[in-house]
Amino acid sequence: MTTSRTDNAAAAPAAAFWTDLEQALGPNGFSRGADAIPPKYWTDWSGTPPVPPLALLRPRSTDEVSALLRICHAHRVPVVPQGGLTGLAGAAVPVAQGVAVAMDRMQQIEDVNARTGLMTVQAGVSLQTVQEAAVAAGWVFGVDLGARGSCQIGGNVSTNAGGNGVLQNGMMREQVLGLEVVLADGTVLPMLRPMLKNNTGYDLKQFFIGAEGTLGIITRVLLRLRPAPQAKATCMVALPGFDEALAVLARMQARFGNSVAAFELMWSDFVQTSMQWQKLQPAFAQQHPLQALIDVDGKDEAALRAAVEEALGEAMEAGEVVDAVIAQSSEQARSLWKLREAPAEMTAHMHPPVNFDVSLPQVDIGRFAAACRAAFDARWPGHHSLFFGHVGDGNLHVTTDSQTINGEDEALEAVLYGLVQQFQGSVSAEHGIGLHKMPYLGFSRSPQELAAMRAIKQALDPLGLMNPGKVFAAD
Amino acid sequence: MTTSRTDNAAAAPAAAFWTDLEQALGPNGFSRGADAIPPKYWTDWSGTPPVPPLALLRPRSTDEVSALLRICHAHRVPVVPQGGLTGLAGAAVPVAQGVAVAMDRMQQIEDVNARTGLMTVQAGVSLQTVQEAAVAAGWVFGVDLGARGSCQIGGNVSTNAGGNGVLQNGMMREQVLGLEVVLADGTVLPMLRPMLKNNTGYDLKQFFIGAEGTLGIITRVLLRLRPAPQAKATCMVALPGFDEALAVLARMQARFGNSVAAFELMWSDFVQTSMQWQKLQPAFAQQHPLQALIDVDGKDEAALRAAVEEALGEAMEAGEVVDAVIAQSSEQARSLWKLREAPAEMTAHMHPPVNFDVSLPQVDIGRFAAACRAAFDARWPGHHSLFFGHVGDGNLHVTTDSQTINGEDEALEAVLYGLVQQFQGSVSAEHGIGLHKMPYLGFSRSPQELAAMRAIKQALDPLGLMNPGKVFAAD
């Protein structure tokens, strides 16, 4: 995969840069030169070719982040912020003329308030640690995704992470009540007041959520937790078509409101492949065009299961559902969910996989998937592509075995993103733009919007030092 | 009440300005001069002294908004956007050297999708019209407030309106899936893609929500509707103190999750005054320090009432609740809610009232209210002040009879906002800054945050033409 990089062609920094850094961070606070920097900091999970940075800085506090940014600003040295390096778009890959700032020494959970469901953490805390601390306090955290053990909350905020809970809880943006951010010149913005309602000028913190490190470094996050559900019902339904899937979703939401926690749709290619890879028993005797996994929260297991059964019965009578299985235990629920876990096997089976993360107007997802498949069939007969997604929130994933398209990954991207543009969708639902989707950003954003984004960037980072060459080309 | 106005001292526009406007809007598209402009456009509900604008422009389309802004930009004429003029902070009051742009000819509901719960409207549609269209499509709209019949959705977005549904549905920001905005130079930003998940660069629309018209004019809004609840239970509880109120809220949220739709707390002064003004029967035989009105959504009336009763029984055993009444019909529910409606009577009874809309870290609201009362008692013995609020979301309202503080409104504001600053609260929870809270913005925002806001303003409106002198002084 090629990427269009625009590294700032900065001159090598003066000797004073290094002595200033040593004074600010201490001799153990940074490593200088490729030999001294572990290769894990050279790239992320996106498969981008590794780039050793000029230096790796490892601050321990907001003051140190502020100091190092002041120094980089004074010496015009580009800065790439790094979280858990699990990003799939390349946003955290270093630039050769700049420093990487790893947040992995800022891992304090500073405060958990069990009464109000608020938690303050440093940006380097892992998502899983946040989730566990929430549960320990009697709450849950609203965002979950596969990289939970490695990804950091600062990175989750910077990419406005999505994952499995979006239908019920929204994206990361909706879990963030406050942020502390350090701007490119070292200015600290303390936007941490713990109020749900705070209309005092622009809601500045919104600007940094999803900015992929191009506007500043997030140092602390005030999180809003969600009440823990007491019971959960899980079911798998067989569906005759996409319109019926939307009808079932609407039916479940009408009945269970915001308690519908997941609605994961899987096309039959995905279902068959997942069963084969994981040696699963089929949930239904026959194959169906689509299957959906549905989770509903409630108060009482038995009553909830009965209510879900009743709703599905009505859906069957209405012709929306052909067959259905309701898990009778949490073990059965886990077993139903296993079918959805094929993505963990893709790297091993798909030579390697070409992954897409797009979103579309919900009503159009079925037509979009059909159009994609037809376009792929026409050009690459025999291609192996899997369609699945968090359809409740408009997010579709498509994964293709690159061997079955003769390694023509870029052509495949052009076909798929072209259709996204045609359907007025988003080329990035939850992974961000980073490096890899920069060529396609214009498919989902007008020139006017891109110009406004550049004006914001220029306003908050006039020297263009923060994560240069990511999201949109500097000009 | 004094205000610090910073009207742009623009010279009178050239003759070409008027011919350009006539060409763009037609002869009926604008009115010129105080005699031709109805006084209702001269001020809003904030009580700010009326200011007739240079002209009142009444565009019928996004194209006309774009054209008029291009013209004002070319002639350096300031622009004040106007919605329903129900704001309480003065943000929509005209400036004498500028034009007012009324959105009341852009009242189309363009699309309602009953299947996906999405609605696209022009900015001038009233909140009530949106609510009714949502219900007609089998959904509900998540924001409600007293001015629903007059306020416009564009104004609701521009002030990030709150109201009664915030605990369950969030502020206006969380109902907005897309926006169309016209910038000061006439550039149209079409940010209307109907996806919940869309991480393609900065989430530009967030910048305009709550910006009070200082960054551009909102012309169209894509709204996300909420599933309609099937049943509702309403109860009134008597509480021994504030900590117990929070314990009950946490207990209800743990049991009913996001189905807790309202948690309105009223201090006993409010309760007594409201009963007296409205000639209501007391809900409880004895007076209590606090009463809370709680609404819970559910599927089945009887089952829900039983579950609420059980939860309240447990709260009584735990000593959190002293007494409780559960409405047995929607009529009884309305009757319980009547107690909360005293604010509609305030203007008639409080000579006039001095209103505050602040928010605080939830755990501190009780201590804050006590500190306020003590400070008022010390300086104005015999003052009549009412404390109440949407405590579930941290929002406290305080209203004082100005006659009982000898008309010393400004001194009262200084005392209360000083305490807000001390408690690290927000001087505006849901009404915005406008003109009236500008002197206190620095109590809730650091100089660094204000500088960042000014940089954003400068980036998107370099000539400073959009709603000048509002939110923060231009410099």
Give your account of this protein's structure.
Chains A, B: GO terms for molecular function: FAD binding; oxidoreductase activity. Chains A, B: This is FAD-binding oxidoreductase. Chains A, B: Keywords: FAD, Flavoprotein, Oxidoreductase. Two copies of one chain form a homodimer. Chain A has helices spanning 15-25, 62-74, 127-136, 153-158, 166-169, 205-208, 242-256, 268-278, 301-317, 330-338, 343-349, 365-379, 409-422, 441-444, 447-460; strands spanning 30-32, 55-57, 79-82, 99-102, 109-113, 118-122, 139-140, 176-182, 188-191, 217-224, 226-227, 231-239, 260-267, 290-298, 323-326, 353-359, 385-389, 395-401. A seven-stranded antiparallel beta sheet of chain A has the order 15-12-14-13-17-18-16, with helices on both faces. Chain A is globular, with a radius of gyration of 23 Å. The longest helix of chain A is centred in the middle third of the chain and has 17 residues, at 301-317. The two termini of chain A are 23 Å apart. Helices cover 32% and strands 20% of the residues of chain A. By secondary structure, chain A is α+β, with helices and mostly antiparallel strands. Chain A is built from 15 helices and 18 strands. Among the domains of chain A are: 109-227, Uridine Diphospho-n-acetylenolpyruvylglucosamine Reductase, domain 3 (2-Layer Sandwich); 231-341, Alpha-Beta Plaits (2-Layer Sandwich); 345-431, Alpha-Beta Plaits (2-Layer Sandwich), CATH 3.30.70.2740. The interface between A and B is large, with 91 and 91 residues.
